[in-house]
UniProtKB/TrEMBL annotation, chain A:
Keyword Membrane: no
Record bears the keyword Nucleotide-binding: yes
Domain ABC transporter: from-to ranges: 4-234
SUPFAM superfamilies: MOP-like, P-loop containing nucleoside triphosphate hydrolases
A single GO molecular function term of this UniProt record: ABC-type maltose transporter activity
Stated name of the protein: Sorbitol ABC transporter ATP-binding protein /mannitol ABC transporter ATP-binding protein
GO cellular component terms, semicolon-separated: ATP-binding cassette (ABC) transporter complex, substrate-binding subunit-containing; maltose transport complex
Family designation: Belongs to the ABC transporter superfamily.
Annotated keywords: ATP-binding, Nucleotide-binding, Transport
Automatic annotation (TrEMBL), chain B:
Name the UniProt record assigns to this protein: Sorbitol ABC transporter membrane protein /mannitol ABC transporter membrane protein
Membrane spanning stretches: 12-37, 73-94, 106-123, 155-178, 211-237, 257-279
Membership in a protein family: Belongs to the binding-protein-dependent transport system permease family.
GO CC annotation: plasma membrane
GO biological process: transmembrane transport
Taxonomic path: Bacteria, Pseudomonadati, Pseudomonadota, Alphaproteobacteria, Rhodobacterales
CDD domains on file: TM_PBP2
PANTHER family: BLR7065 PROTEIN, INTEGRAL MEMBRANE SUGAR TRANSPORT PROTEIN
């Protein structure tokens, strides 16, 4: 259960094609993350899978059956929305019970499942409260509870953590990952945050303008980005992309080097520049280097702390093994 | 902002409004109260300043009082049912994306701008007229005998007229409520396996409950004083005499100002009882 295939799926709103023909395979039990900048069509893609939008052409298969024209409720998928979409006039208990009530399950089964879900999500004490009386994280858990009790073939998450504060987001991220390990159900997760994508995914789908730029495991994307867009999008801070003569020396139109693969010295090195802003995180230091003659700004990541003042001259030396090369079309050169 | 200066300025600015309110409301009320304890029949030249509660006793014990009370409740209830059921339907329809939405919305609101007397006359002469009303033509076209609405089912006819006038109000308030519903909630319900009717019952209707109570409260207050529509169509005959109309008849047709004033005070008390009752319900609904 939980295998989803997209075959030449397209979506147009009026004359505007937001998703050109697209193929994607999602295997059983996988945690797949759709990631991309806002407006890249990742939410639309999720809604197509959910059945909340109709496909313009192409086919969606769920567990081997054609689900292209099935209504959302018949697809066996559960969705957690960005706004949680809890029913405000119902208690937590009734919210969680709603899908079962619609399915016509008997009271005893409903009760047992609610208790189980509440226990798994630490909601037992809140069952009789209304959503308005809960914190953001608790609401999020109720939304997940409502999804769990349906025992879906796959869970769909639409930017579920974007309304939470930073600390809570990290906590909920772990909870969702633990849930995935426990349930072993397919999960599709949409986010614009590449950190969430990297930490959570078995498989990342990077999208831009409705086109899949690359599909792969987080480390595949990190070590071998297929093109400039993926190279720039995955990894934090962003990869430094250098064009011009320096790139031509390496037989490429553009070369890329990640901030963590640049060596720093105050006395000698391959490239010279001036220190701009230095961001001290304690464990790491990010230094923005200007006037290198290579790019507007280069970012360097140094483990630990370093004394670097604004305007100091600094020398950078790239780790040549970690250099990424891209051709004029932006594609990776192996 | 609440300095002593701004407070006194606020009082000064509010003063004219308070003054007007006093003159236009408190004085007539006091005069009504004064007349209600008097035997005042100007046509016969009778004026006795104090006859105790005689007017009240006469008004409350007459058979027309109870029947007029029942008529009032039937009328208000009927109009509320039609406007709210119709208003919810219209609001849901108008919320759908369609061509010419702006114009359609203005057209829907239009009846609210027509004066009650005018709309009652239009309904009476254009639709309900037995000889050449549109409904008569329609009935004839369908092979039925013409139906004299205003004499055969007068209460229903007036309910229809007033409901037509108030439907736009209900629609407008309910439409804004429908529009404020988070579409993700409906989508979540759809994913949860709720068909359209269940989504209406479990998501949309509870969301509208607050707006519906507001509509009920405001409309009830206004509908208790329906007058023009009755005056223009049936003149209070055929069981369409409401409490308001009864008071009017006592004062102007029987020329008994004392009795009419007592009726007016009774009506004020009843309206306030209903208002307090409704306010409590609304208050409860607005809390959560």
């Amino acid at each position: 259960m939980g295998q989803i295939n997209l075959n030449q799926v397209t979506k147009s709103f009026g004359d505007v094609q937001v998703i050109p023909p697209l193929d994607l395979q999602i295997n059983e039990g996988e945690f797949v993350v759709f990631v991309g900048p806002s407006g890249c069509g990742k939410s639309t893609l999720l809604r197509l899978i959910a059945g909340l939008e109709d496909t313009t052409s192409g086919h969606i298969n769920i567990d081997g059956k054609d689900a292209t024209t099935l209504p959302p409720s018949k697809r066996g998928l559960a969705m957690v929305f960005q706004s949680y979409a809890l029913y405000p006039h119902m208690s937590v208990r009734k919210n969680i019970a709603f899908p079962m009530r619609m399915a016509g399950l008997d009271e005893a089964t409903q009760k047992a499942k609610i208790e189980a879900a509440a226990k798994a999500l630490n909601l037992t004490d809140y069952l009789d409260r209304k959503p308005g009386q809960l914190s953001g994280g608790q609401r999020q858990r109720v939304a997940i509870g409502r999804a769990i009790v349906r025992e879906p073939a796959a869970f769909l998450f639409d930017e579920p953590l974007s309304n939470l504060d930073a600390a809570l987001r990290v906590g909920m991220r772990l909870e969702i990952m633990e849930l995935h390990k426990k349930l072993e159900t397919t999960m599709i997760y949409v986010t614009h945050d590449q950190v969430e994508a990297m930490t959570m995914a078995d498989k990342i789908v990077v999208l831009q303008a409705g086109v899949i730029e690359q599909v792969g495991s987080p480390l595949e994307l990190y070590h071998a980005p297929r093109n400039k867009f993926v190279a720039g999008f995955i990894g934090s801070p962003r990869m430094n992309l250098i064009e011009g003569p320096e790139a031509q020396k390496h037989g490429a139109a553009t070369i890329g080097i990640r901030p963590e693969h640049l060596g720093v010295s105050k006395t000698a090195g391959l490239w010279q520049g001036k220190v701009g802003v230095a961001e001290h995180l304690g464990s790491d230091t990010f230094i923005h280097v200007h006037q290198t003659g290579l790019a507007d700004m280069m970012t360097v990541r140094i483990t630990g702390d370093i004394e670097a003042r604004h305007g100091d001259t600094i020398y950078l030396t790239p780790d040549m093994d970690q250099l990424h090369r891209f051709d004029a079309a932006g594609l990776r050169i192996e | 902002m609440a300095t002593a200066h701004s407070k006194s300025a606020a009082r000064l600015m509010i003063a004219p409004a308070v003054f007007v309110l006093l003159v236009w409301m408190l004085i007539p009320l006091c005069m009504t109260l004064y007349f209600s304890f008097a035997d005042y029949r100007p046509m016969r030249g009778v004026f006795e300043t104090w006859i105790g509660f005689e007017n009240f006793i006469r008004f409350l014990t007459s058979s027309s009082f109870l029947s007029s009370l029942v008529t009032t409740l039937q009328m208000v209830g009927g109009i509320l049912v039609i406007t709210i059921a119709g208003g919810v339907l219209m609001a849901l329809l108008l919320d759908q994306p369609m061509f010419g939405q702006g114009i359609v919305r203005i057209l829907v609101i239009a009846p609210f701008f027509v004066m009650p007397t005018v709309s009652a006359l239009v309904w009476k002469n254009m639709f309900f007229n037995v000889d050449n009303g549109l409904f008569s033509y329609l009935f004839q076209g369908l092979g039925f005998p013409p139906y004299d609405f205003l004499s055969q089912s007068p209460l229903l006819s007036i309910i229809v007229i007033v409901a037509w006038q108030w439907l736009p109000f209900a629609t407008l308030i309910l439409l804004t409520a429908v529009q404020s519903l988070d579409s993700e909630q409906l989508e979540a319900a759809e994913m949860d396996g709720a068909p359209a009717l269940a989504r209406f019952r479990f998501i949309i209707l509870p969301h509208l409950s607050r707006a519906i109570t507001v509509v009920i409260l405001i409309q009830t207050i206004f509908l208790l004083s329906i007058f023009a529509e009755i005056f223009v169509t049936t003149n209070g005959a055929f069981g369409t005499r409401t409490l308001t109309y009864l008071v009017y008849q006592r004062v102007l047709e029987s020329q008994n100002i004392g009795l009419g004033s007592a009726g007016g005070i009774v009506a004020v008390i009843l309206a306030n009882v209903i208002a307090i009752f409704l306010m409590r319900i609304v208050g409860k609904n607005l809390d959560n």
